[in-house]
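Here is the promised in-class demo. Please do not try to memorize the tokens; focus on the logic of going from shape to residues.
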């Protein structure tokens, strides 16, 4: 059984109208490409996978695709959430928007906390890509479940003495098929993802 799609952190959520922010459109352009390639989607049981976020107004907040939207080909602003704050000590996420944030929101928050210049995070699923990265020396978390405080600590640990911009991709060993890339822009994060895929296909 694939452990996917369940929000594990405590969520303090306020429902609001759709997010009228440019970040939604920027995310959607990239998401559409990744969806068409099956890197974002849903399993046979209907559980969705894959999510993207963008830092909001150079703050610690970020716009992220909402939970369980992987199966939807195109997302309008009603399927996005604004994470205002994450309290790692209390394992609590504070968010607003028309829909609740992705179950991976706390992992995204952890990545943004690594460096203030990180502005975009992409999380996709693909077994061949996941397996390739595990076998070819890419950065990896331990055999840790997604969306947990342990995952947050794992991410912090692997980047403790590493420049994140020189190693802006890692594989989630304990999260079957899960791969994350990030960057100063969405373009950077997507470029890194496709560079790894290109190596895989050689």
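The designed amino acids, position by position:
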């Amino acid at each position: 059984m694939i452990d996917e799609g369940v929000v594990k952190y405590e969520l303090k959520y306020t429902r609001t109208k759709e997010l009228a922010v440019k970040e939604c459109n920027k995310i959607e352009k990239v998401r559409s490409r990744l969806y068409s390639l099956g890197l974002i989607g849903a399993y046979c049981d209907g559980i969705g996978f894959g999510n993207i976020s963008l830092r909001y107004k150079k703050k610690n907040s970020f716009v992220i695709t909402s939970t369980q939207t992987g199966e939807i080909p195109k997302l309008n602003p009603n399927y996005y959430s604004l994470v205002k704050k994450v309290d790692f000590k209390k394992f609590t996420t504070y968010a607003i928007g028309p829909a609740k944030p992705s179950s991976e929101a706390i992992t995204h928050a952890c990545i943004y906390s690594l460096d203030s210049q990180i502005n975009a995070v992409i999380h996709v699923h693909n077994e061949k890509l996941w397996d390739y990265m595990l076998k070819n020396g890419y950065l990896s978390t331990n055999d840790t479940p997604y969306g947990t405080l342990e995952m947050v600590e794992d991410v912090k640990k692997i980047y403790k003495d590493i420049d994140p911009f020189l190693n802006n991709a890692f594989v989630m060993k304990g999260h079957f098929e899960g791969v994350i890339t990030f960057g100063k822009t969405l373009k950077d994060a997507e470029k890194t993802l496709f560079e790894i895929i290109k190596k895989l296909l050689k």
